[in-house]
Amino acid sequence: MTTLLVIAKEPVAGRVKTRLTPAFTPEQAAALAEASLADTLEAVAATPAGRRVLVLDGRPGPWLPPGFEVVAQCGGPLDERLAAAFAACEGPALLIGMDTPQVTPALLAPALVWDAYEAWFGPAADGGFWALGLAEPDPALLRGVPMSAPETGSVQHGRLTSAGLRVGRLPQLRDVDTAEDARLVAAEAPAGRFAALHARLTAAPAGSGTRAAGEDPAPVRTGPR
Protein backbone atom coordinates (compact mmCIF):
# COMPACT_ATOMS: atom_id res chain seq x y z
CA MET A 1 0.00 0.00 0.00
CA THR A 2 0.95 3.63 -0.41
CA THR A 3 2.99 5.56 2.14
CA LEU A 4 1.37 8.88 3.01
CA LEU A 5 3.95 11.57 3.81
CA VAL A 6 3.19 14.90 5.48
CA ILE A 7 6.06 17.37 5.44
CA ALA A 8 5.66 19.99 8.15
CA LYS A 9 7.31 22.45 10.49
CA GLU A 10 6.63 22.64 14.22
CA PRO A 11 4.17 25.54 14.67
CA VAL A 12 6.34 27.95 16.65
CA ALA A 13 5.63 31.68 16.64
CA GLY A 14 8.02 33.55 14.37
CA ARG A 15 9.02 30.40 12.45
CA VAL A 16 5.81 29.53 10.62
CA LYS A 17 3.26 31.43 8.54
CA THR A 18 5.20 34.68 8.75
CA ARG A 19 3.30 36.03 5.73
CA LEU A 20 0.11 36.04 7.81
CA THR A 21 1.51 39.00 9.72
CA PRO A 22 0.70 41.82 10.30
CA ALA A 23 -2.94 40.82 9.80
CA PHE A 24 -2.30 38.32 12.59
CA THR A 25 0.27 38.42 15.37
CA PRO A 26 3.12 35.86 15.21
CA GLU A 27 1.38 33.89 17.97
CA GLN A 28 -1.91 33.88 16.09
CA ALA A 29 -0.13 32.87 12.88
CA ALA A 30 1.47 29.94 14.70
CA ALA A 31 -1.90 28.95 16.13
CA LEU A 32 -3.40 28.96 12.64
CA ALA A 33 -0.47 26.86 11.40
CA GLU A 34 -1.10 24.38 14.19
CA ALA A 35 -4.79 24.19 13.35
CA SER A 36 -3.97 23.67 9.67
CA LEU A 37 -1.53 20.90 10.54
CA ALA A 38 -4.03 19.23 12.88
CA ASP A 39 -6.74 19.24 10.20
CA THR A 40 -4.29 17.85 7.64
CA LEU A 41 -3.14 15.05 9.93
CA GLU A 42 -6.74 14.17 10.75
CA ALA A 43 -7.51 13.77 7.05
CA VAL A 44 -4.43 11.64 6.49
CA ALA A 45 -5.22 9.49 9.53
CA ALA A 46 -8.64 8.75 8.01
CA THR A 47 -7.15 7.79 4.63
CA PRO A 48 -6.23 4.11 4.01
CA ALA A 49 -2.46 3.78 3.77
CA GLY A 50 0.33 1.30 4.39
CA ARG A 51 2.26 3.88 6.44
CA ARG A 52 1.64 7.41 7.62
CA VAL A 53 4.82 9.42 8.12
CA LEU A 54 5.22 12.95 9.46
CA VAL A 55 8.45 14.42 8.12
CA LEU A 56 8.96 17.10 10.73
CA ASP A 57 11.21 20.10 11.24
CA GLY A 58 11.01 20.44 15.03
CA ARG A 59 9.32 18.45 17.75
CA PRO A 60 5.88 16.79 17.74
CA GLY A 61 3.19 18.25 19.97
CA PRO A 62 -0.30 17.41 21.23
CA TRP A 63 -1.62 18.05 17.71
CA LEU A 64 -0.11 14.73 16.51
CA PRO A 65 -2.70 11.93 16.36
CA PRO A 66 -1.78 8.27 16.87
CA GLY A 67 -0.75 6.13 13.94
CA PHE A 68 2.06 8.29 12.57
CA GLU A 69 5.76 7.64 12.37
CA VAL A 70 7.75 10.81 12.95
CA VAL A 71 11.03 11.32 11.13
CA ALA A 72 13.22 14.40 11.16
CA GLN A 73 13.61 16.47 8.03
CA CYS A 74 17.08 16.51 6.59
CA GLY A 75 18.92 19.78 6.21
CA GLY A 76 19.21 21.81 3.04
CA PRO A 77 16.75 23.54 0.69
CA LEU A 78 13.19 22.34 0.29
CA ASP A 79 13.80 20.35 -2.89
CA GLU A 80 16.45 18.30 -1.07
CA ARG A 81 14.15 17.75 1.91
CA LEU A 82 11.31 16.55 -0.31
CA ALA A 83 13.70 14.31 -2.24
CA ALA A 84 14.97 12.78 1.01
CA ALA A 85 11.42 12.10 2.19
CA PHE A 86 10.72 10.10 -0.97
CA ALA A 87 14.12 8.38 -0.84
CA ALA A 88 13.20 6.89 2.54
CA CYS A 89 10.12 5.15 1.07
CA GLU A 90 9.82 1.71 -0.44
CA GLY A 91 6.97 1.43 -2.88
CA PRO A 92 4.39 4.07 -3.83
CA ALA A 93 4.35 7.31 -1.82
CA LEU A 94 2.14 10.40 -1.76
CA LEU A 95 3.45 13.58 -0.16
CA ILE A 96 1.45 16.60 0.98
CA GLY A 97 2.26 19.64 3.12
CA MET A 98 0.64 21.31 6.13
CA ASP A 99 -0.81 24.33 4.31
CA THR A 100 -4.05 22.82 2.93
CA PRO A 101 -6.38 22.19 5.89
CA GLN A 102 -9.25 21.74 3.42
CA VAL A 103 -7.79 18.41 2.28
CA THR A 104 -10.02 15.37 2.82
CA PRO A 105 -9.68 11.60 2.45
CA ALA A 106 -11.86 11.86 -0.67
CA LEU A 107 -9.38 14.29 -2.27
CA LEU A 108 -6.46 11.98 -1.49
CA ALA A 109 -8.16 8.72 -2.48
CA PRO A 110 -7.54 8.85 -6.27
CA ALA A 111 -3.79 9.24 -5.70
CA LEU A 112 -3.67 5.94 -3.85
CA VAL A 113 -4.51 4.02 -7.03
CA TRP A 114 -1.65 3.31 -9.42
CA ASP A 115 -3.29 1.25 -12.18
CA ALA A 116 -3.32 4.05 -14.75
CA TYR A 117 -0.59 6.42 -13.54
CA GLU A 118 2.99 6.35 -12.29
CA ALA A 119 2.72 9.81 -10.70
CA TRP A 120 0.10 12.09 -9.21
CA PHE A 121 0.23 15.88 -9.17
CA GLY A 122 -1.92 18.29 -7.17
CA PRO A 123 -1.48 21.89 -8.36
CA ALA A 124 -1.74 24.82 -5.98
CA ALA A 125 -3.42 28.13 -6.81
CA ASP A 126 -0.16 30.04 -6.32
CA GLY A 127 1.68 28.07 -9.01
CA GLY A 128 3.18 25.46 -6.70
CA PHE A 129 1.83 22.05 -5.81
CA TRP A 130 0.10 20.67 -2.73
CA ALA A 131 0.46 16.96 -3.50
CA LEU A 132 3.01 14.80 -5.30
CA GLY A 133 2.77 11.04 -5.68
CA LEU A 134 5.29 8.62 -7.15
CA ALA A 135 4.70 4.92 -7.79
CA GLU A 136 8.47 4.42 -7.69
CA PRO A 137 10.00 7.21 -5.61
CA ASP A 138 12.96 8.79 -7.38
CA PRO A 139 14.63 11.67 -5.51
CA ALA A 140 16.17 12.93 -8.75
CA LEU A 141 12.71 13.99 -9.92
CA LEU A 142 12.67 16.67 -7.21
CA ARG A 143 16.25 17.80 -6.82
CA GLY A 144 16.88 21.15 -8.46
CA VAL A 145 13.22 22.12 -8.81
CA PRO A 146 12.89 25.79 -7.77
CA MET A 147 10.66 25.91 -4.71
CA SER A 148 8.37 28.69 -3.46
CA ALA A 149 8.36 30.30 -6.90
CA PRO A 150 5.55 30.96 -9.40
CA GLU A 151 6.99 28.31 -11.73
CA THR A 152 7.44 25.59 -9.09
CA GLY A 153 4.43 23.57 -10.17
CA SER A 154 5.08 23.76 -13.89
CA VAL A 155 8.73 22.78 -13.47
CA GLN A 156 7.86 19.85 -11.19
CA HIS A 157 5.11 18.64 -13.51
CA GLY A 158 7.54 18.93 -16.41
CA ARG A 159 10.05 16.76 -14.55
CA LEU A 160 7.43 14.03 -14.27
CA THR A 161 6.35 14.11 -17.90
CA SER A 162 9.92 14.40 -19.18
CA ALA A 163 10.70 11.20 -17.30
CA GLY A 164 8.01 9.49 -19.35
CA LEU A 165 5.63 9.08 -16.42
CA ARG A 166 1.88 8.99 -16.85
CA VAL A 167 0.68 11.72 -14.50
CA GLY A 168 -2.73 11.82 -12.84
CA ARG A 169 -4.01 15.25 -11.87
CA LEU A 170 -5.67 16.07 -8.56
CA PRO A 171 -7.91 19.12 -8.04
CA GLN A 172 -6.26 22.48 -7.55
CA LEU A 173 -6.17 23.65 -3.93
CA ARG A 174 -5.19 26.91 -2.31
CA ASP A 175 -2.27 26.95 0.13
CA VAL A 176 -2.60 29.12 3.23
CA ASP A 177 0.18 31.68 2.83
CA THR A 178 -1.48 35.08 3.20
CA ALA A 179 -4.36 36.48 5.26
CA GLU A 180 -6.56 36.40 2.15
CA ASP A 181 -5.65 32.74 1.58
CA ALA A 182 -6.64 32.02 5.18
CA ARG A 183 -10.02 33.68 4.71
CA LEU A 184 -10.79 31.78 1.52
CA VAL A 185 -9.65 28.39 2.84
CA ALA A 186 -11.60 28.83 6.08
CA ALA A 187 -14.73 29.51 4.02
CA GLU A 188 -14.06 26.43 1.88
CA ALA A 189 -13.74 24.07 4.86
CA PRO A 190 -15.90 25.64 7.61
CA ALA A 191 -16.09 22.51 9.80
CA GLY A 192 -12.38 22.26 10.56
CA ARG A 193 -10.20 23.48 13.39
CA PHE A 194 -8.59 25.99 11.07
CA ALA A 195 -11.88 27.64 10.14
CA ALA A 196 -13.06 27.71 13.75
CA LEU A 197 -9.89 29.39 14.94
CA HIS A 198 -9.88 31.82 12.02
CA ALA A 199 -13.44 32.84 12.88
CA ARG A 200 -12.47 33.45 16.50
CA LEU A 201 -9.40 35.48 15.62
CA THR A 202 -11.10 37.62 12.99
CA ALA A 203 -14.08 38.29 15.24
CA ALA A 204 -11.81 40.02 17.80
CA PRO A 205 -9.32 42.88 17.38
CA ALA A 206 -5.86 41.75 16.29
CA GLY A 207 -3.70 40.84 19.25
CA SER A 208 -6.59 40.01 21.57
CA GLY A 209 -7.75 36.59 22.60
CA THR A 210 -4.52 34.89 21.55
CA ARG A 211 -3.91 31.46 23.06
CA ALA A 212 -0.71 29.60 23.67
CA ALA A 213 0.32 27.68 20.56
CA GLY A 214 0.31 24.38 22.41
CA GLU A 215 -3.35 24.59 23.35
CA ASP A 216 -6.17 23.02 21.34
CA PRO A 217 -6.72 25.51 18.52
CA ALA A 218 -10.44 24.82 18.31
CA PRO A 219 -12.01 22.84 21.13
CA VAL A 220 -15.47 23.01 19.53
CA ARG A 221 -16.00 21.06 16.30
CA THR A 222 -19.13 21.33 14.22
CA GLY A 223 -18.83 17.75 13.01
CA PRO A 224 -16.50 15.33 11.27
CA ARG A 225 -14.75 16.46 8.11
Describe this structure in words.
The chain is of the alpha/beta class. The chain has helices at 26-45, 78-87, 105-108, 152-162, 179-188, 193-203, and strands at 3-9, 51-57, 69-72, 93-96, 119-123, 129-134, 167-169. A 7-stranded mixed beta sheet has the order 3-2-1-4-6-5-7, with helices on both faces. Helix 1 links the parallel strand 1 and strand 2. It is globular and about 50 Å long.
Quickly describe the structure.
The protein contains 6 helices and 7 strands.
Keywords:
about 220 residues; alpha/beta; seven-stranded mixed sheet; 6 helices; 7 strands; about 30% helix; disordered C terminus
- The count of helical stretches stands at 6
Beta-strand proportion:
15-25%
> Helical residue percent?
25-40%
Biggest sheet strand line-up: 3-2-1-4-6-5-7
Task: Decide which structural class fits the backbone.
Answer: alpha/beta
The outline comes out as globular
Largest pleated sheet: 7 strands, mixed
**Overall average residue pLDDT:** 92
What does the radius of gyration come to? Answer: 17 Å
| Uncertain ranges | 206-225
Distance between the termini: 24 Å
Number of distinct beta strands: 7
Order of helices and strands: EHEEHEHEEHEHH
Q: Could you outline the blueprint of secondary structure elements for this entry?
A:
Blueprint: E1 3-9, H1 26-45, E2 51-57, E3 69-72, H2 78-87, E4 93-96, H3 105-108, E5 119-123, E6 129-134, H4 152-162, E7 167-169, H5 179-188, H6 193-203
Parallel strand pairs: 1-2, 1-4, 2-3, 5-7
Antiparallel strand pairs: 4-6, 5-6
Helix pairs in contact: 1-6, 5-6
